[in-house]
Amino acid sequence: MKDSGVSMDNLQYVPDDIYPSISRYIINKEDIYITVAGTIGKVGKIPPELDGANLTENADRLVFSIINQDWLIMCLQSSVVQSQIADATTKVGQPKLAIARIQNLLIPLPPVDEQSRIVAKIEEIMPMIERLTLR
Fold it and tell me: Which of 6, 75, 109, 132 has a CA between 20 and 30 Å from the CA of residue 69?
């Protein structure tokens, strides 16, 4: 898993004998994932071809029905929220981010229409920003 997407390289398949014990760890194309172990705080969408796939133990799924997915991803990727994620990550042994700590993240929540306008404006100006930063 990487920011904004899932690498389709090196996919692993769950053996039939193990599947029943992890069958509740399913992710859907409507969900957003967040990595919670190893590399922490990467967020993105699930590609349609992985709809219904098993989710790695290194990620959690975030399920929202009244939030613009793109807006939430951009918000979770922001330095303000990434700083909260870093502060909420346990530092003993392998770093981990517990789902209870994800639930305590403070994020702004404008109305859905405004979320869509924010996403559209960011998508409009991002190519200009990228061109300016490459100079």
Answer: 132
Helix pair 79-88, 69-77: axis angle to 10 deg: 70
Nearest to 50 by CA among 22, 64, 30, 35: 30
Per-residue model confidence as pLDDT tens digits over 56-114: 778 888 888 889 999 999 999 999 999 999 999 988 778 899 888 998 999 989 999 99
Structure tokens belonging to residue 118: 């924010």
| Burial grade of 50 (CB within 10 A; 0-12, 13-18, 19 or more) | middle
